Amino acid sequence: MVPSLWTISKKVLIAMVLASAALTQTTAVFAQGESRSGSSRLMIRGAGSSSPRHSAASINMPAIGRRAAPSPAYRSWLPKRGNPRLVLLCIHALGFSSKSYDNFGRRMAASGIPTYALDVRGFGAWIKQPDKAHMDFKACFTDVEQGLKALRQKYPRLPIFLVGESMGGAIAIQAAARYPDLVNGLVAAVPSSEDRGSMRSGMVVAYKTAENPGSNVDMAPVIVDGATNDPALRRKINAEPLNRMELSKKELAQFERFMKETHDAAPLIERIPSLMLVAYKDKLVTAAGSVDLFSEMTTSQKLMIGDGNSQHLMLEEAQMTPEICRILTGWLQDKAGQGTGNRGLGSK
């Protein structure tokens, strides 16, 4: 349980969230109590500098089970030893692939947490299958459901947490709302559907320059350049063959609709423990959009963390800070210790 220093109104909380300039060197932790009370608690923590110990973790792909989506839609990072207390299933951001969780997965596995990640339809390994090399959120939900069921079969006594970033965060929220009996916990990083203008401008350019609805437009200048200021990381992301930044007008329109639909799903998160991560140096989406989703969740077990040092990628591409890593693993272990079993923490 995160201790509180002040009790403040929700309006003041949102105002403080939006005042991102004041949080450039700190991590703000927002803990929401019972949703009916209308009150919130705020604690400011200084950014830490020490790094958690970790070693190389084994990788097996797909490693979930025969009933999972077609191989190689999944990859995994498994602890070398010990008795795990929980399992993670991760979903990547727009344009990326499950490989973007490599560093994250290794660090989680080094902490004793089996970690799995899937490729969203149209990205990653799906690129190699012409009939599936396009965005398909309906099929993606089927993949997530199959993955959750396969993990439940493989780890029948462990709680399963869905983890997603950006588009993956929106998928995780909507999947948790669809399959509450399969999800014991939720972590959503920067799931906001409100862009800062660069994404919108890029989509406008795409609509104007695409010759026909099926033609592709390179969104890398928008997505990659907006995700990080690091030239080396930009080159790495652009060079990764499993990433796909060329999207059609149809896919862009589908993506925009899908992200907005997350607001319909958020109120259905009624009992699932949920952690929201917000980056205040994010150039792609606003913190306000994620705060709105957080406020719309009706679960009493929800926590928001605003990091003043992170850009858009908070978990993927080795961008997770030591402070966020410590808070995340602590929260996961705390929630995992509150209950296990097939129906789990989020069940009615």
List the helices and strands and how they pair.
Layout: E1 6-9, H1 10-18, E2 26-32, E3 39-46, E4 58-60, E5 74-78, E6 87-91, H2 102-110, E7 115-118, H3 137-154, E8 160-165, H4 167-178, E9 185-189, H5 198-209, E10 216-218, H6 220-227, H7 231-239, E11 246-248, H8 249-265, E12 274-279, H9 287-296, E13 302-307, H10 322-336
Parallel strand pairs: 6-7, 6-8, 8-9, 9-12, 12-13
Antiparallel strand pairs: 1-3, 2-3, 2-13, 4-5, 5-7, 10-11
Sheet bearing the most strands, described? 11 strands, mixed
Second rung of CATH, namely the architecture: 3-Layer(aba) Sandwich
Task: Find the count of extended strands (DSSP E, 2+ residues).
Answer: 13
What's the pLDDT, averaged over the residues? 79
Q: What number of structural domains do the residues give?
A: 1
**What is the CATH topology?**
Rossmann fold
Q: What do we call the CATH homologous superfamily?
A: Alpha/Beta hydrolase fold, catalytic domain
Which CATH first-tier class would you pick?
A: Alpha Beta
SSE string: EHEEEEEHEHEHEHEHHEHEHEH
Task: Determine the number of helices (DSSP H or I, runs of at least 4 residues).
Answer: 10
Radius of gyration, in angstroms, nearest whole number: 19 Å
